[in-house]
Amino acid sequence: MAGKYSKDMLPQEVKERxxxxxxxxIIDVREPDEWESGHIPNVKHLPLGSLGQRLGELDRTKxxxxxxxxxxxxxxxxxxLEELGYDVSNMPGGMxxxxxxxxxxx
Length: 106
Fold this sequence. Notes:
Oxidized Rhodanese, domain 1, alpha/beta, single chain, about 15% strand, about 30% helix, 4-stranded parallel beta sheet, 4 helices, globular, transferase
């Protein structure tokens, strides 16, 4: 079931902003095998299960866009990160709706 998080940035908007050269802080919370099969270039990989132990890698002064396969896990991550004071947006539809560049491997 999807979380109740409602601050979204659609995949098409993310793609357009990246195409304009905008530097976006994107976090991919999928599992390593999902990440390796294809991810948006230059995003930070922080699997949802290890997010709590890796919070030190995030800067509370920067906005983040959180992505997963479909938008459910990223929505849950957004709810939690927002409670901790981070400025986050969920990418609903996740990688299943992503039509931009994808790279494989680590």
